[in-house]
């Protein structure tokens, strides 16, 4: 249903560096730079970062990235730890969502809630 998503960030290059490290365990990488925008994905850019274009306080956004397996969720978490980012939830099962839901949640440099999730059984 969703083709792509873009987050407005305070510092595009700083956030791009953060996401390069964070998304590598999920198989995603920086694929395209277009002016002030940076696109990430596996085969085409589906996750974009761009500069803040309005005034005011941005609202927290939640973005969940698909992981092929639980090991990739754990590697995503480990990459976040290496970056020194705030860990919201270490990797674990979330049975309230469904029995095989395994996710980790971290905070990006702009305060967004970023998740890696695997829906496969252990």
TrEMBL record:
Residue intervals of the VOC domain: 1-119
Classification via InterPro entries: Glyas_Bleomycin-R_OHBP_Dase (IPR029068), Glyas_Fos-R_dOase_dom (IPR004360), VOC_core (IPR037523)
PROSITE patterns, sorted: VOC
Xref: Pfam families: Glyoxalase (PF00903)
Protein name: VOC family protein
Organism encoding this protein: Nocardiopsis gilva YIM 90087
């Amino acid at each position: 249903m969703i083709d792509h998503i873009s987050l407005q960030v305070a510092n595009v290059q700083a956030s791009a560096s953060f996401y390069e490290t964070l998304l590598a365990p999920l198989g995603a990488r920086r694929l395209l730079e277009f002016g002030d925008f940076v696109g990430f994905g596996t085969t085409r850019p589906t996750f974009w970062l761009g500069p803040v274009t309005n005034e005011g306080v941005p609202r927290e956004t939640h973005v969940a990235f698909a992981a092929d397996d639980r090991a990739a969720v754990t590697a995503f978490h480990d990459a976040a730890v290496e970056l020194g980012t705030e860990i919201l939830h270490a990797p674990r099962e979330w049975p309230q969502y469904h029995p095989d839901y395994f996710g980790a949640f971290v905070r990006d440099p702009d305060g967004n809630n970023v998740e890696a999730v695997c829906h496969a059984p252990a």
